[in-house]
Amino acid sequence: MQKPVELIIFDWDGTLFDSVGQIVASLLFAAEQFEQPLTPEAAKSIIGLGLPEVAQVLFPTVPELHTEILKCYGDHYVEHSKGDQWFAGVSEMLHDLKSQDIHLAVATGKSRKGLDRVLGQTNSRDLFTVTRAASETKSKPDPLMLAEILQHTGIQADRAIMVGDTSYDLEMAKNIAMPRVGVSYGVHRIDVLQSFNPLTIANDVSALHDFLLQQVQLKDVV
After folding, report:
1. Which of 35, 39, 105, 211 sits most deeply, having the most CB atoms within 10 A of its CB?
2. Domain spans of the chain, in order of start
């Protein structure tokens, strides 16, 4: 019998926040400034990793430029991302789940500085019991940030769900034996997400909302 869900952990970019296009544009801008080859597909593929890992994957031949490239990327992103916002329906979903006495958390490849900025931008800090950013722990798919969230909440992995749009999110959850849900409207293809045996793959926020509510309401019948 499935255990009742007490905690739902969300990835941020591409899962809650419609920011993938600007991330790609800013990575391409930074690569161009330092005359590094980069395709939109390659830039998109690494969304979800921590920034040091992004630099290692995308620019492996110029480690001496990583700090400058990442600064250029970050400056460009902050300057041009004013229009980034939650996907339609995310605010309603989060408030609805919160009203069910479910703990909500964030596990993201963003830096703490970047995460704090968008939490403020969306006025959502109080919605989440705990948030973890890649800059203060290990990057996905290492499960350390999930282990830290579980330790903070005192909730076991089998009573939590990780929600994400990339293989990094789902592999991270699989590495700690946590149930997981994919979303197809973000970065990685459905077939890639399916390889990590998610409970489901939601095609939009409305479908995600409905599925998570079903999982939450199991606690009333178990």
Report:
1. 105
2. 7-18+85-220, 20-80
182 backbone dihedrals φ, ψ, rounded to 5° = -100, 155
Assess whether the previous peptide bond of 143 is cis (omega < 30° from 0): no
> Could you say which DSSP state residue 21 is in?
H
Average pLDDT value for residue range 115-126: 93
Contacts of 63 (CB under 8 A, 6+ apart): 55, 56
Main-chain dihedrals φ then ψ at residue 90, nearest 5 degrees: -65, -45
**Residue 25 to residues 30, 79, 198, 219: CA-CA distances in angstroms?**
9, 12, 30, 43
3-state secondary structure of 179: coil
Hey, what are 14's tokens? 């591409």
CA 194 to the chain's CA centroid: 17
In three-state secondary structure terms, 106 is: strand
Residue pLDDT, tens place only, 66-105:
999 999 999 999 898 877 789 999 999 999 999 999 999 9
Q: 7-18+85-220 belongs to which CATH class?
A: alpha beta
Tokens of 159: 């009573």
The DSSP call for residue 165 is S
Other CB atoms within 10 A of residue 116 CB: 14
- β 7-10/201-202 pair status: unpaired
- Which H or E run contains 131? strand 130-133
23, amino acid identity: I
Cα R_g (the chain), whole angstroms? 17
